[in-house]
Design brief:
heterodimer, A: mainly beta, seven-stranded mixed β-sheet, four-stranded antiparallel β-sheet, 0% helix, 46% strand, B: mainly beta, six-stranded mixed β-sheet, three-stranded antiparallel β-sheet, globular
Chain lengths: 122, 110
């Protein structure tokens, strides 16, 4: 059974960048899509983007184009999400999520990481 | 403002049936699968319903999903106290070329 383990909580100053990592244990996601979803305090879920490690560049939500970069290494089972020029409204829990049965970004997520709290504050 | 529309809350007494609606459009629900996620406070979301109406292994059959046109719904029959959680619908959107979620529905067991 695949598990996704994310890096620890971060506190960042406005204008800086943050990188959150996600590592698959139990198996690698060589051909599985990895997505990043965030949730601001008391708010709903918001998709940021996704990537299929063996199939090329990531796809991003329009809202985050130019500010987010997602990379993944299928051979090591790791994925990173970097958000630049962070501001207070980027304070949220960031989740990585995958579909272990599909290599398509268009299929829902059956495994989620535990979440990483990113706090943006001066 | 979420692309998919859900009621913010739903409630019922133990044993009752509760339904949650999810309304979208042709570019998302109308042309793609709907997924439902359950989220307890302080925890990561969990897949509850896959591809419109399929329950992953381990999900009780009290939970069921359906889809018709550009709308979908989640039904919880035999409501139990442990079903108190937030529920989100989601679908791929062909126009946005990405995932869209409903705003979430908080289920309360009275």
């Amino acid at each position: 059974q695949v598990q996704l383990v994310q890096s620890g909580a971060e506190v960042k100053n406005p204008g800086s960048s943050v990188k959150v990592s996600c590592k698959a244990s139990g198996d690698t996601f060589r051909t599985s899509a990895i997505n990043w979803v965030r949730q601001a305090p008391g708010q709903g879920l918001e998709w940021m983007g996704g990537i299929i490690p063996s199939f090329g560049p990531a796809k991003y939500a329009q809202k985050f184009q130019g500010r987010v970069t997602i990379i993944a290494d299928g051979s090591t089972g790791t994925a990173d999400m970097e958000l630049i020029s962070v501001r207070s409204d980027d304070t949220a829990v960031y989740y990585c999520a995958t579909n272990t049965l599909s290599s398509s970004l268009r299929h829902g997520f059956d495994i989620w990481g535990q979440g990483t709290l990113v706090t943006v504050s001066s | 403002q979420s692309v998919l529309t859900q009621p913010p809350s739903a409630s019922g007494t133990p044993g009752q049936r509760v339904t949650i609606s999810c309304s979208g459009g042709n570019s998302n629900i109308g042309n793609n699968y709907v997924y439902w996620y359950q989220q307890f406070a302080g925890a990561a979301p969990k897949l509850l319903i896959s591809t419109n109406d399929q329950r992953p292994s381990g999900v009780p059959d009290r939970f069921s999903g359906s889809k018709s046109g550009t709308s979908a719904s989640l039904a919880i029959t035999g409501l139990r106290s442990e079903d108190e959680a937030d529920y989100y619908c989601a679908a791929w959107d062909d126009s946005l070329n990405g995932w869209v979620f409903g705003g979430g529905t908080k289920v309360t067991v009275l």
